[in-house]
Amino acid sequence: MSTPAHHRPPVAPGDRGLGVHVVLAVKDLSGAKSRLAGALPDPRRADLVVAMLLDTAAAASASPLVVGWSVVTPDPRVADVAARAGATAVPEPASPRALAGTGVGASGLNRALSAAHDAVRAGGVDVVALAADLPALTTAQFEAAYRAASPTGRSVVIDHTGSGTTALLVRGPGAALDPRFGPRSAEHHVASGAVALDGDWPGLRLDVDTEDDVRRALELGVGDHTRAVLENAGWPLGEHRTPG
C-alpha cells in the first residue's frame, strides 16, 4: 500500500513531529452504498466500497508524512483486506459512547473513529480521520490539507456538497478527535471548534455516494482498485484518467 520508507522523499523540517496516523471507518458491507443500487448490484457495491477504501488509503499512505493507518470496521471482509494491505484493524466498539453536550449521536461512525483515535493518539502522532470513499484522492491533496490544518487542535475538510465532512484532522498535543459525523457534520464540526480548511482539493472533497459522484470521480481520475471494479461491472469508463 504505502511506499517503502527508503524510497520516500525526505520530509521537510517542521513538517511533522512524530508523524501522521490515518484512520478510516467502514460500515458493514451488507447494503453498502444503497444509492448506487440502480447502477450496481449488491456484490459489486460491496466490491466498490473495498476498492475505494484501498485507493483512499493508498493515496494517503504514500505520503512520507504518514507513519501508519488504521481501519475500524465490524465487517470481517473489510478487516481482512485492510490488514493484508498493511492497516491496523480496530474492532468497532459494541456500545455507544456519548458525545456530551451535543445533539449528535455517538453511534456507528463516531464510535469507530473515536476508538481508532484513542488507540493511536497515545503515541504522540497527529491523526487524520478520512472518509473511506475518496477514490480520486491524491497524495498531494492529502499533504496540502494536512499542512494547511491548524498546528494545534482540530481542522475539517468539508465535502463537495457543503454539508458533509471528508477529513477531520487533529494536530498537536492534547486535542481530541471529537467526531461529529452524521447529518450536517460540517456544521457540527465547525460549531464544536474545528477550523474549516479552504483549499482546492477536489479529490479530497469528493466522497462517492451517487452515480453522479462516480462520474465526477472518474473525471478527476480514480485509483486502480476502483477503476477495476467499475470496469468489471461494465461501467462506461471512457477516456477518464487515473489520479496523478
Question: How are the SSEs ordered, and which strands pair?
Answer:
Elements: E1 20-25, H1 42-61, E2 66-73, H2 76-84, E3 88-91, H3 109-121, E4 126-130, H4 139-148, E5 153-158, E6 165-171, H5 185-191, E7 195-196, H6 202-205, H7 211-220, H8 224-232
Parallel strand pairs: 1-2, 1-4, 2-3, 5-7
Antiparallel strand pairs: 4-6, 5-6
Helix pairs in contact: 1-8
Can you summarize this structure?
Pathway: Cofactor biosynthesis; coenzyme F420 biosynthesis. Belongs to the CofC family. The chain has helices at 42-61, 76-84, 109-121, 139-148, 185-191, 202-205, 211-220, 224-232, and strands spanning 20-25, 66-73, 88-91, 126-130, 153-158, 165-171, 195-196.
Task: Quickly list its features.
single chain; alpha/beta; Spore Coat Polysaccharide Biosynthesis Protein SpsA, Chain A; 7-stranded mixed β-sheet; disordered N terminus; GTP-binding; nucleotidyltransferase; nucleotide-binding; Nucleotide-diphossugar_trans
